[in-house]
Amino acid sequence: MSSSDRKNGVPTTVTSIPLVDPHAPKPDPSIGELVKDATAQVSTLVRAEVELARAEITRDVKKGLTGSVFFISALVVLFYSTFFFFFFLAELLDMWVWRWVAFLIVFGIMVVVTAILALFGYLKVRRIRGPRKTIESVREIPDALTPGHDKAKAVSAGSDGKAATGPTADPSGW
Question: Would the pLDDT of 153 be above 90?
Fold first, then answer.
């Protein structure tokens, strides 16, 4: 079809009319074809869900980063403002004591507050133990994937030392 046969990207004439819908399912598909179609559809669905989640997370992360920039800016301004507060406190104490003593008192207060905050930070960081449950579950993966791992548990679960037999024992080893 040449470009002269088209008007605004739409063909003006139909060259052929299909006699069969190429997308129509076959009247009697085999089990293999059904499994193939189901696998393809599940794969497409999972990919679409992952792409949707990625888009949503990207959007939320961008919003979070923008918000955190404003919080960091506010904290920087607050940090620089504390200088003026402590200077004001020293000048206020200057009314009752010598000027150098007033600044020494303010310095001492700042050192004590710093020491207390450092102690709180140390106590919080000391409690960090790492992802223990994750490490535990990762160590269990090889046992879970090995055939017969339930048999060892069944033997240890038996009170008389005999292997457990019955509806809970799996003869296949899985």
Answer: no
- Residue 52 has φ and ψ, to the nearest 5°, of -65, -45
Query: What does the alpha-carbon distance between residue 61 and residue 68 come to, in Å, rounded to a whole number?
Result: 10
- Looking at 22-31, 57-66, 94-103, which range is the least confident one? 22-31
Domain positions in the chain: 30-82, 94-146
**All residues at 6 or more sequence positions from 91 whose CB lies less than 8 Å from its CB, including other chains:** 102
Q: What angle do CA 91, 110, 89 make, to 5 degrees?
A: 15
> Each residue of 38-85: pLDDT tens digit?
888 888 888 888 888 888 888 888 888 888 899 999 999 999 998 899
Neighbours of 92 (CB within 10 A): 11
Q: What is the DSSP string of the chain?
A: --GGGEETTEESS-S---SS-TTSPPSS--HHHHHHHHHHHHHHHHHHHHHHHHHHHHHHHHHHHHHHHHHHHHHHHHHHHHHHHHHHHHHHHTTTS-HHHHHHHHHHHHHHHHHHHHHHHHHHHHT----HHHHHHHHHHHHHHSTTHHHHHHHHH-TTSSPP-STT--TT--
- Is-above-0.70 flag for pTM? no
How far is residue 58's CA from residue 92's CA, in Å, rounded to a whole number? 51
